[in-house]
Amino acid sequence: MATNGIHHVTAIAGSAQRNLDFYTRTLGLRLVKKTVNFDDPGAYHFYYGDAAGSPGTILTFFPWEHAAEGRAGAGELQETAFRIPQSAIGYWTQRLVNQGLERTTRFGETVLTFRDPDGLRLALVGIPGIEAEPAWDSGEVPAESAIRGFHGVSLMLDRTEATGAILTDVFGFREVAREGDTTRYAVEGTTIGGIVDLRAVGGFLPARLGRGSVHHLAFRAADDAAEMEMVRKLAANHGLRTTEQKNRDYFRSVYFREPGHVLFEIATDIPGFDVDEPAESLGSALKLPAFLEGHRAQIEAALPVLA
Ligand code: ZN
Predict the structure, then answer these.
(1) Which residues have beta carbons under 5 A from ligand 1 (an ion)?
(2) 296: CA distance to ligand 1 center in Å?
(3) Does a structural domain hold residue 1?
(4) Residue 218 alpha carbon to ligand 1 centre in Å
(5) How crowded is residue 216: how many other Cβ atoms within 10 Å of its Cβ?
(6) What is the mean pLDDT of residues 262-277?
């Protein structure tokens, strides 16, 4: 089984409630974990995904109520694209008509682009023949039209060569197509979260992180040994050092700034989101890492109240 590809994407939101409503109701994703930012426990960390919270389906947010707006530019993840059945294009066109929806074609695929309430750039890509793939029935979006994980992400970079070399040498991608200023990289055999598009935009102003922008992009490693092998390759072949490994409870991660200035993470597939609550009730309780459990009362009192 292929274990290369995208693990998760983490972005910055404003209002926690508005973020929760949009992703669980409008887009029909499952909230698979409700926790806090381990490095800033005054803020939530929401994880949305498929029924099981599988790698390749996970979009996460740090909602900071007073976050300043980000600015699009070079050196950032510009767009996150989800897979939908081709037959659901009409359903989603109607559903997202108030989100600034535009329809386009890229690499021969039908793409609907739109923004979330904080301005985050999203897309839905119609894929023929995936109606029978399992889907989360949110009660808001019928299963036959539901999102089936990530299609891929687009990075907007000043130059793309050094980033492309890391995708191919370290993360198991290969170059598969070019269209205009965009080079498409894909992992053979990975249908969910298996595509990264690199768009060369030399001369653009650098992106500024904020509400509506992506904080980092995480790639999959099957386990600690696979992660450490990637760390070794980054140092030996690309002269890049990562952080030490951090325990994120649901995966174990290292981080590094890739040559195009996007923050990359490598996250293990193990142990997964059912490590601290049953699979059937994922996301229903506020979960805290052990080192914060002793401060639960203060943390809960300071977090925004959710309906
Ligand atoms: Zn992450």
Answers:
(1) 10, 218, 265
(2) 23
(3) no
(4) 6
(5) 18
(6) 97
Lowest mean pLDDT among 41-45, 72-76, 127-131, 135-139: 135-139
Q: Would 254 be classed as within a structural domain? A: yes
Percent of the chain with pLDDT over 90: 96
Show the domain range for 154.
6-302
Tokens 């130059």 — which residue? 159
Residue 38 per-residue DSSP state: T
pTM of the predicted model as reported, rounded to 2 decimal places: 0.97
In the numeric block, which tokens belong to residue 292? 């914060």
- Structure tokens given for 15: 């209002």
Residue 99 domain-assigned (yes or no) = yes
> Does residue 173 lie within any of the structural domains?
yes
Residue among 222, 248, 192, 153 at smallest CA distance from 50: 192
| Closest alpha carbon to 16 in 38, 31, 1 | 31
Q: What is the pLDDT of residue 199?
A: 98
The CATH number for 226's domain is 3.10.180.10
Q: How far is CA 210 from the centre of its chain?
A: 16
Q: Inform me whether the pLDDT recorded for 98 exceeds 90.
A: no
Give me the numbers of helices (H) and strands (E) for the chain, helices first please: 6, 16
Number of domains in the chain: 1
Strand segments, DSSP code E, in the chain are: 6-13, 30-37, 40-49, 58-63, 76-85, 102-106, 109-115, 121-127, 150-157, 174-179, 182-186, 195-200, 214-221, 246-247, 252-257, 263-268
Distance 94 CA to ligand 1 centre (A): 32
In angstroms, what is the span from residue 60 Cα to ligand 1's centroid? 8
Give the length of the chain.
307
For residue range 191-206, what is the model confidence (pLDDT) as tens digits? 999 999 999 998 899 9
**pLDDT at position 152, please?**
98
Taking CA atoms, 36 is separated from 12, 205, 227, in Å, by 13, 32, 24
Q: For residue 271, is the peptide bond before it cis, meaning its omega torsion is within 30 degrees of 0?
A: yes
